[in-house]
Amino acid sequence: MERLVIFSGAGMSAESGLKTFRDSGGLWENYNVYEVATPEAWKANYKMVLKFYNERRKQILETKPNKAHYSCVDLEEKYQVNVITQNIDDLHERAGSKNVLHLHGEIIKSQSSIDSSLVYPIEGWELKQGDLCEKGSQLRPHVVWFGEPVPKMDDAILLMVRADIIIIIGTSLQVYPAAGLINYAKPNAKLYFVDPGNIDLSIEKDVTQIKEKAGVGLPRLSKMLLSK
Ligand code: NAD
Fold first, then answer.
1. pLDDT of 53 above 90
2. Which residue stretches of 63-197 are H helix?
């Protein structure tokens, strides 16, 4: 079976009603990302950070996967599919994708603020002030903030290096190190990029660009790859 990697960003979930940040002038649902998605923000005002992620979690739990998420699942009929997502939502899993690697964490989980290896599921949508890990520290969202290391990067690189087909979808490729992943594609890998924006790919690889929204471009590409 050929190995196919889907590398998704916020645009993948846009048609489920979750806003991307680049399309909203660098804001994430009206918040400046540096005031809610950095370790400094957590130190300065952890209550605001908890509130921001509680709002995002509530919104995510109320939304549903879209056609593009389901197309990723369809591809499993013929390919060994691995999804590498920058998204913190769980829409790939809810659509039924079997292998999903979350580069930037998962909003439906919490982690200890003193030991990142302690990760817990969150019951419902709210993580509260006073919710503690087993070592007694405040729980924080299980997401990778700007300026923090990306623990799953090595696993993602391994998947990229081995992939025969790579579909990059709904990402402005501005957030590093995630954006650098495509440079690990092997020379003969076939690359597709589905995004309606004018994204500068600036890589030395042959990429088939599909300038469509995820919900149109991915079902079409998936149909083509399944009929090959
Ligand atoms: P980004 O906001 O920088 O870029 C979004 C991209 O999606 C743009 O290239 C845009 O042209 C494209 N896009 C917009 N609508 C689309 C559609 N309908 N179909 C396909 N593409 C569409 O997002 P990014 O590159 O993923 O990086 C931002 C970071 O923000 C990520 O690390 C992620 O963790 C975080 N984020 C996550 C979510 C989520 O989990 N759903 C939402 C917003 C931001």
1. yes
2. 67-74, 91-95, 153-162
